[in-house]
Amino acid sequence: MRLVPCTILCFLITQVFSHSSAAEVSDSDLADRFTHQQSGVIEIDDADDASDQKINAFCLNHEGHIVAVCGTGPGEVRVSNDEGEILHSWAVDVKPESVGVSDDDSVLVGGEGKLFRFTATGDLVVETESPHAARLRSSTNELREAAVASIKSRRRSRMTLPMAKSRLRSFEEMMEKLKERQEDKELNESEERMLKVLPALLERYQKQAADLEAEAEKKAKAAEDAEDGEEEKSEPEISESEIEQKVESMIRSKMRVSSISSRGEFVFVTTRAIEGYGYDVWKMNLDFDDAEVVVSDLRGCCGQMDVQCSDNGLFVAENSRDRVVHFDVDGKEINHWGKSDRAGVDGFASCCNPMNLCFDQEGFVYTAEASIGRIKKFDPSGELVSFVGDVELVPGCKNVSIAVSPVSEKIYMLDLTRNHIKVMEPKQDEKPVTEPEQEDDLIVTNEAMVDSQKDDTKADEAKVNAPVADQPSKNELEDAK
Q1: In which domain, by residue range, is 218 found?
Q2: Which string of DSSP letters, residue by residue, matches 235-254?
Q3: Which residues contact 231 (CB under 8 A, 6 or more apart)?
Q4: How far apart are CA 333 and CA 421, in angstroms?
């Protein structure tokens, strides 16, 4: 009877409302201001690899080639051209979760607590443990305390019988209204998506209400049978095995390397914080030595935190705070900009955006918004320069890696669920390339969603801007998986 994690919640909300937000913008004249349109799709498939490994992240090298990290571990680095032709590829013995390139086009890879530096063609130069991994393993007491606190918090947050019955009634009423609108053929796309989700929620709440009712009856009978007025324990003791399992789960989730980037003599690696639910940025040299935390307490949802470095310093897509933050290379904040905005015009739309960012050769900052696929261009001080355009992708709170070509006017964005990279080019007179209607199974099979559940991110870190008042509340939705 767990409450829904923020990952599942964000997924449901973005599936339901992402298209309605985009529609609002499409009805305005904003589309006329877009500088780019979608022109193609790049699939990076290895004909000799029957497993067809998923793309986890990508960047561009200085020749404009795509450098993608793929697979669940062991994984692979693939360097390809715009046609998806693989120019170089090599294995990595962990799940590669993030990728960047240094000034000399060395390929930097982070994943599962390890860091790698390869030459541009795949020769291994350095392999080492990430500094946060070593610190994690030496922080047994802190992790144990956090595990106990998390278990207690989860027990306290269990749904009560009145709450379950109340939400069940709300969902039943919502279902009836949607079915009436369906019979009258008045459903919009968002309502159709909610109609697909509701049956699973109803089934879960029905079972939960029945379980809670049985539990209440059992407790009442136990109280009647108690002898000598002995009081029943209000909370069972936490077992040692339960604590150990929680600690192991926390270590696995915190081993993730969320982003890796480089400029000049420095490499910057973003990881989960040792304590709490925030993120840290580590600064180190190109051999991954002399590591120190220069930025801490960043807030990200769904296991995502993109930090990239340019000649102007560090820029953070701090998605849970709906903003971009600019630091110098020593971690001193210079500026920040952004706010939550349902339409994505004056701020960032949907749940938890911007999700990713990158730079062009002149140092302009490009932001990518998950779910609606919007790309914006800012100057380094945060002034909006232009709306680049909307990429057609499967909605969801997930990584949408973005890159601007150093040799052309193309802009690239990852569509994680479809496992390909979208290409944007300056607008022409002809209409942009469109995607076939997305398959229903894409709505319920989101690898990014499944992976990020392991990050155990707190639900109160997600900022959900549900536009309809009677939608399922953030802390009461049941995991519909």
Answers
A1: 143-222+238-245
A2: SPPPPHHHHHHHHHHHHHHH
A3: none
A4: 32
Run of H or E residues at 291: none
Q: How confident is the model at residue 73 (pLDDT cuts 50, 70, 90)?
A: confident
pTM of the model: 0.72
Per residue in 87-98, pLDDT (tens digit) is 999 999 999 999
CATH code (residue 365)? 2.120.10.30
Which of 102, 50, 42 is CA-nearest to residue 71? 50
* Rounded Cα gap, residues 56 and 452, in angstroms: 12
Crossing angle of the two packed helices 140-156 and 240-254, in degrees rounded to 10: 110
CB atoms closer than 10 angstroms to residue 134: 13
> What is the chain's alpha carbon radius of gyration, rounded to the nearest angstrom?
24
Higher pLDDT, 472 or 406: 406
Tell me whether residue 345 is in a domain.
Answer: yes
Mean pLDDT, all residues of the chain: 82
Alpha carbons 210 and 465: distance in angstroms, whole number: 31
Please give the single-letter amino acid code of residue 22: A
CA-CA distance, 73 to 79, in Å (whole number)? 18
Helix (H/G/I), strand (E/B), else coil: 3: strand
On the 0-12 / 13-18 / 19+ scale of CB atoms within 10 A, 365 is buried
Structure token pair of residue 6: 């923020």
